[in-house]
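Repro:
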Amino acid sequence: MGLVQHLTLDVERFWFRAVVAGDEEVIHGLPNGDEAWKVAPEVSAIEVLELYRREAELTDAVITATPADAALAWWPHDLFGEPHLHTLRDVLLHVITETACHAGHLDAARELIDGRRWLVLT
C-alpha cells in the first residue's frame, strides 16, 4: 500500500497538480522525504486505493485542460536543480515510465508472495 500511496502523492499529485498546474495549496502540502511511502496504521487499503483513484481523476482534469507543449507552472529546484522536464508531454512520459517501473516492483513482490507468474515465456 505504501507504493500505491507513493504513486498517489509523489507521482500523480506532485507532477500534475504541483509541477504542471502550479497549485500552491498542493505545493505547500507536499510530503517530505519518504512520508508518502508510510501508510498510517488506521488507513485501510480501500482508502489508499480510493485516494489514488481520486488523484487520477484530478490528473485527468489537469491533462485535459493543458496543451501538451505547455510550459510547467512550477519546478522543485530544491529537489532536482535545473529543470530536466519542460512541458506536460515531458511529464507524461516521465510518469508513464515511473508508474510502469513501480508496477513491475509490485508484480515481483506479488510473485514472491504467491509464486504465480503473470507472463511466462517458454
